[in-house]
Amino acid sequence: DGGITQSPKYLFRKEGQNVTLSCEQNLNHDAMYWYRQDPGQGLRLIYYSQIVNDFQKGDIAEGYSVSREKKESFPLTVTSAQKNPTAFYLCASSPDSYSNQPQHFGDGTRLSIL
Amino acid sequence: GQNIDQPTEMTATEGAIVQINCTYQTSGFNGLFWYQQHAGEAPTFLSYNVLDGLEEKGRFSSFLSRSKGYSYLLLKELQMKDSASYLCAVRDRPNDYKLSFGAGTTVTVRA
């Protein structure tokens, strides 16, 4: 079955440590997105990518980095510069950035600070 | 930028109807999505509106009024499994790639 796979489901970060969240999709979608979800708040866009080898900052990109070397993969690195990383991180994809097709979401990674 | 407002919580009885309102302000409007999200899980797509009017999909319907910046999601014949958070998301034409999400409405269905 086609879908989006995020791993790990739970992740713990030590102070000063960078961690990478994995996102893989086999839907053949061009566009991929990373969101952060905090309690009582809507999903906020961290980064998005419309095509391989291209990505753009979203609303809250500071302290995060991404790469898009393959169409299927869009990993997110939470760097030590992100001072409040505890949140639920959701990866999504869509056929492209401009159509009325909905974004499909992975099951998320919950990141906590040790 | 976007201002998207939804009620925080709603409670209803099994078998009843609940209407979740969403109001938004945009510089250009290019579509509104509703998603359902169970706790700790991925949001799943429910409906899409870009023109005024009602879209019906089984027990779920969604309405849009672009002139009023208003949408609602109507859940009929509520079931216990409908207990979840419902997210309203708006696409703003100048930045078509981006969906701006409301904070979500948590619906609790009681027996």
Q: Order of SSEs of chain A, N→C?
A: EEEEEEEEEEE
The whole-number mean of residue pLDDT values of chain A reads 92
Main beta-sheet annotation of chain B: 6 strands, mixed
Oligomeric state, counting identical vs distinct chains: heterodimer
The averaged pLDDT of chain B comes out at: 93
Explain this structure to me?
The complex is a heterodimer of chains A (114) and B (111). With 114 residues, chain A is mostly beta strands. Helices cover 0% and strands 48% of the residues of chain A. In chain A, the strands form two sheets. In chain A, strands 2, 4, 5, 6, 9, 10 and 11 form a seven-stranded mixed sheet that branches. Chain A has a four-stranded antiparallel sheet with strand order 1-3-8-7, with no helix packed on it. In chain A, a hairpin with a 2-residue loop joins strand 5 and strand 6. Chain A is globular. Chain B has 111 residues and is mainly β. Helix content of chain B is 0%, strand content 59%. Chain B is built from no helices and eleven strands. Chain B is globular. The model of chain B has no long low-confidence stretch (mean pLDDT 93). The A-B interface holds A 4, 31, 35, 40-45, 48, 50, 56, 58, 88, 90, 97-98, 100, 102-108, 110 and B 4, 8, 31, 33, 35, 40-45, 48, 50, 87, 89, 96-104.
In short:
Chain A has 114 residues and is mainly beta. Chain A is built from no helices and 11 strands. In chain A, strands 2, 4, 5, 6, 9, 10 and 11 form a 7-stranded mixed β-sheet that branches. In chain A, strands 1-3-8-7 form a 4-stranded antiparallel β-sheet, with no helix packed on it.
Descriptive tags:
heterodimer, A: 114 residues, mainly beta, seven-stranded mixed beta sheet, 48% strand, globular, B: 111 residues
